[in-house]
Amino acid sequence: MSKERGGGMPSGTSTFVRHRARKRFADDAKSADVNGEQNSSQNRKKYKSFRIRTLSTIWMIAGFLFVLYMGHLYIWAMIVVLQIFMAREIFNLARAAQREEQLPGFRLLNWHFFFTAMVYVYGRFLSKQLVTTISSDKLLTKLFSGFIKYHMLICYFMYIAGFVWFILTLRKGLYHYQFAQYAWTHMILFVVFTQSAFTVANIFEGIIWFLLPASLIAINDIAAYIFGFFLGRTPLIKLSPKKTWEGFIGASITTVVSAFLLANWMGRSLWLTCPRKDLSTGWLECDPGPLFKAKYYTLQGWVPSWFPWQELVFLPVQNHALAFGLFASSIAPFGGFFASGFKRAFKIKDFGDSIPGHGGITDRMDCQMVMAVFSYIYYQSFIAPLNYSVADYLDQILKILTLEEQIDLYKQLGEVLQKKECIPV
Widest CA span of the chain, in angstroms? Predict the structure, then answer.
């Protein structure tokens, strides 16, 4: 009676409630354990990927520095190897997308067009260096003079040979596929050779015009990864879900500051600043030009006397480096976004697996493509006109003009100077 008046719960109901509470607690604990194991597994995978990516980056940087030390010709060879890997990855992507219709010999035709493009692009960009190299050797002059003179004609007939080859392989019922593959091949050659040709042109104008832009892209990529890894919260663009605003902003600041500092350091090395006018591998000596001549600014009166730096050393090239840094951090990443969209269109994660933790060569070169073209155009627009000396003009005159034309130029130049009363009549 007393229990009923006190509103006590029947013993059977009480036991059932306690049982349900214990079961719910056990389920919650089990769910928490499962979630904890999943989070722990994800964290392990995340840090394992970070470790693999870091080690790959270290050996890539070490190999790059070795090639850089070897000089211009070896850097060019490295670019050619990277081109071959990139073309192979994208050619394989095309074949993976259309496996059902394989054509015998089409892969060989792809590489024929690749080789033709290589001969045309490098023959055109490096003609001056090739002429300088062979002019001192009679045998080389005989071997290559015809190639230099008829370079464009040779490349044209190489392309025509590939064109005729393609036409002869056309098969009824496969026209659409074959013409699609033909267009795909030309798109690949455009993407691969556009950036790499400009890169090689930059190398022979001075390694710094290749090294500085390439380094800034690498710094921006690494900084974006680190800032995004530890601080990333806000997604940047849907095409690349792992990109974050925190990574983008942190990388931008890091890249611009690095550009200013690296230009000062690189600009002091003749090996990096002197242009290579031939295809040799020897040491370089040159007048670095006004861009690489230091200017000193005193800090006396602005800093205390005990301050260790009483003057600043500034190189004019650092102004241009800021432009490179801004482009590398703000525009060049869109090359990566383009590659991300491209991979999504083909439903693949990476272009290949050549580099552990990074994917394929093309995955690492997406931003470099955009940066290389900008670097060449910027150099030719704002820097190259400042670097020509009297010796450069004289060198071109001696190479291009015949002996009679040189004598005629000498007479005309003398007449002009006499009219200006610069020399006595």
Answer: 141
